[in-house]
Design a protein that fits this description.
This is Transporter. It comes from Paenibacillus herberti. Belongs to the UPF0065 (bug) family. The longest helix has 23 residues. By secondary structure, this protein is of the alpha/beta class. The radius of gyration is 24 Å and the shape is globular.
């Protein structure tokens, strides 16, 4: 073999080795994609401990692990800040190819991306929506001794003089409680900017303001109002569901029943990184569907007073696009859209 031929053979072998090594190490250090998952998985709750996202993440990992649906270790990581905006900035830029880090979220992933103040340039389109797991609905709540017993009388007074009625919620202006509070007014033809809204640091403080006479009405989610309803401390004038709920809520009318087309689902779901591979998406499609159908998950839902609603990746993505349109419309009417 002459010198020239030996050099060419060495070059070809080196090039082939580089291709093999590159193929073996692809996936951003996430392990081989073919045997996914091959290491522990983290599910992030973009909040502190104890809130809805945290409870969802812990219930999800507990049931997936205990039922052996996922055999790799699953842990929960809390990443609070900006109602999820701080985490999204990190996730959408640093974890785009990391299928070992998932997260749970709800409508704030849309709201934070669309509002003018305190927003984030990152939203659900910077992720892979894997599945919706639960649903809740907005509720318009008054104290038990309030003069209001139906949404229509409240809207009539609000239309006559919005300065006389104070709404409260457990989140900042432009966030979910605010949007729930003004949705009926907006859909009833009342300028949502005229609705007097006071924000409190959490739903508990908003309820306390209502019961203490510092607010006339609160916008919240029906599950948060449940214990106060059972205790006879509040009345729920209407919910943002398309039809009446069962159980403790069977006598509560939907806002739509009252002639105001105000529907809004407070969902919770699971998301992965934007650049997930097909087999990684297929893995979670199978596991999350099996989770939804398991008795252990049904018991977990009941224990947390969560309503089940499962949507796979494609249907979930379509729904998110539809809800994004409504949220943008409302934020625009409030003068809060970016």
């Amino acid at each position: 073999m002459n010198t020239r031929h030996r050099k060419w053979s060495s070059f070809a072998l080196a090039a082939l080795s580089a291709v093999v090594l590159t193929a073996c190490s692809s996936g951003g250090g996430s392990g081989s994609s073919d045997n996914y998952p091959s290491k522990p998985i983290v599910v992030v709750a973009p909040s502190g401990a104890g809130g809805g996202w945290d409870k969802t993440a812990r219930s999800l990992t507990k049931v997936l692990g205990e039922s052996k649906l996922v055999e790799k270790t699953m842990t929960v990581e809390n990443k609070p800040g900006g109602g999820g905006a701080v985490f999204m900035a990190e996730y959408a830029t640093q974890d785009t190819k990391n299928p070992y880090r998932l997260f749970v979220s709800s409508p704030p992933i849309l709201i934070n991306n669309l509002k003018k103040e305190g927003n984030t340039p990152y939203g659900y389109k910077d992720t892979t929506p894997l599945a919706q797991l639960t649903k809740d609905f907005g509720a318009i709540v008054v104290s038990v001794d309030s003069k209001y017993s139906d949404i229509q009388s409240l809207m009539a007074d609000l239309k006559a003089d919005p300065t006389k009625i104070t709404f409260a919620g457990g989140s900042a202006p432009g966030s979910m409680d605010h949007l729930i509070s003004v949705l009926p007014a907006f859909k009833a033809g009342i300028d949502p900017k005229s609705v007097k809204y006071v924000s409190y640091d959490g739903g508990g403080e908003a309820i306390a303001a209502l019961l203490g006479g510092n607010a006339d009405v609160i916008g919240t989610d029906i599950s948060s109002a449940s214990e106060y309803l059972k205790a006879g401390k509040v009345k729920v004038l209407g919910i943002t569901a398309s039809e009446r709920l069962g159980g403790d809520f069977k006598d509560i009318p939907t806002i739509k029943e009252s002639g105001i087309d105000a529907e809004f689902t407070i969902w919770r779901g699971v998301f992965g990184p934007k650049e997930m591979k097909d087999n990684e998406k297929a893995y979670w499609a199978e596991k999350l569907k099996a989770l939804n159908e398991s008795e252990a998950w049904k018991k977990e839902l009941a224990a947390n007073s969560w309503e089940p609603e499962f949507k796979g990746s494609e249907d979930f993505s379509k729904f998110l696009g539809e809800q994004e349109v409504l949220i943008k419309e409302m934020l625009t009417a409030l003068g809060m859209a970016k």
